[in-house]
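anyone seen this seq b4? input:
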Amino acid sequence: MIDDTWQAEQFERARPQLRAVAYRMLGSLSDADDAVQEAWLRLHRSDDESIRNMDAWLTTVVGRVCIDMLRARQSRREAYVGTWLPEPVVSDDTAVGPEQEALLGDAVGLALLVVLDTLTPAERLSFVLHDMFSVPFEDIAAMLDRSPTAARQLASRARRRVRAAPAPDVDLARQREVVTAFLAAARAGDFDALLEVLDPDVVFRVDTGERPDLAAGPVRLDGAVAVARQAADQGPRFAPHCRVALVNGMAGIVVQSRDFVLAVAGMSVVDGRITSVDLVLDPAKLAGVQPPA
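predicted toks r here
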């Protein structure tokens, strides 16, 4: 029997990385916490003295739990209105706290999580575990009941999909300048100024969860003209309640009324222009978001 105290200590030490793995797999903090909790329950029920590498064992369990959750989620998406977007991680626009830094790591922006969500569960597991956490393909293969070669091919396909998306600017100060300019133009309803900061192929996605009535317009728009028109039309009404903040480690926007967060917009800035706006209105995904200080 594994000593309970040692077991608990090892689990708590591994928890931040397990949560980071699960968040990248699921794009939801609440679901990630459920996956990590399930790993703890399975560990607590286990009396297998053959566990020699606790981190590897726990990562395997979390990976398998996430695969099951992703497959179950796919069957629920058929009636989803709008784009399913990840649950945002929001912080002050000047710094990311230690817990959030551990969670986000390699700047896992909302746009990247949207791309990951287009992968099959097996592709996502192979890419996340190998490319983001350096888990050997032999271990990933065991989770998927496939060969290491097959796991490598899954990760390769996923990698091509991820690399096809333009890499966002890494200069956070520059990101903030662009998002601030967008917000100022939206407040003024300035269509031309909005066009200046939007990429010609910008995409605007909205997640209302089970509340399609929350959207003030279309749940997806493509192209700078359409997005600028929407922002110019709705901006004067909503922009006064907006502020720039870090959304998944990148410059974004939080909409709040008093002490409540009403919406979060993640943005990708590439070559000084906004290439995507991911607006989360789903109350379930905003319930745990605290207004940045």
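The chain has twelve helices and seven strands. The mean pLDDT is 88. kinda curious what u guys think
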